[in-house]
Specification:
This protein has one domain (13-166). It has seven helices and five strands. The protein has helices spanning 27-31, 37-47, 60-71, 82-90, 94-99, 101-127, 146-153, and strands at 13-20, 53-54, 74-75, 134-141, 162-166. Helix 3 crosses helix 6. The chain is elongated.
């Protein structure tokens, strides 16, 4: 038998979709907006590795990429209670839903549709009026150490438009 003798963690990570006013090419492009130099350096190094896209009105591929990223986690500012809507319509409790295979599958299928619709609306709203910005994707988690925990949990983006997606 093996025993775990050190700490067991409940690590987390968050993804960020961040709009930048110009393409990041040097550290100064980041440090203008990120006040902590250690954070700016990490963000810069992560940014220059990316194949970035410019926001345009017709870029459906970029929109779909943001929607996909949103659907991978919990989006902030989401207040939709899918079960409340489902239970009111079907007249069932959560226990009844879990006990009935048909309701259970119907509920989760509907959740997927509703989450997709919500993610698309959120992504579209995020991009409105932000043509010519550049889109960067970052993921940071507390399992990588203190500085990465700060990047995950603090508001590091200055005034840059940002979507935070939690993967807790």
């Amino acid at each position: 038998m093996k025993l775990k003798t050190d700490f067991v963690t409940n690590s987390s990570s968050s993804s960020f979709v961040v709009l930048w006013p110009k393409k990041i090419e040097k550290i100064e492009d980041v440090s203008r907006f990120i006040w902590k130099s250690s954070h700016a350096e990490i963000i810069y190094l992560d940014a220059i590795k990316q194949n970035i896209k410019k926001v345009t009105k017709r870029n459906k591929t970029l929109l779909n990429k943001i929607v996909k990223e949103l659907k991978l986690g919990y989006f902030e500012d989401s207040d939709v209670d899918y079960f409340e809507k489902f239970s009111e319509r079907e007249g069932i409790t959560r226990s009844e839903m879990y006990a009935n295979r048909l309701w259970y599958h119907l509920y989760y299928d509907e959740c997927e549709i509703l989450r997709s619709e919500e993610a698309r609306k959120m992504a579209e709203t995020f991009l409105i009026g932000r043509e010519n910005y550049y889109v960067y994707f970052f993921t940071y988690g507390d399992e990588d150490g203190g500085i990465y925990a700060e990047l995950e949990h603090q508001n590091n983006w200055g005034n840059q438009p940002c979507l935070r997606i939690s993967h807790h």
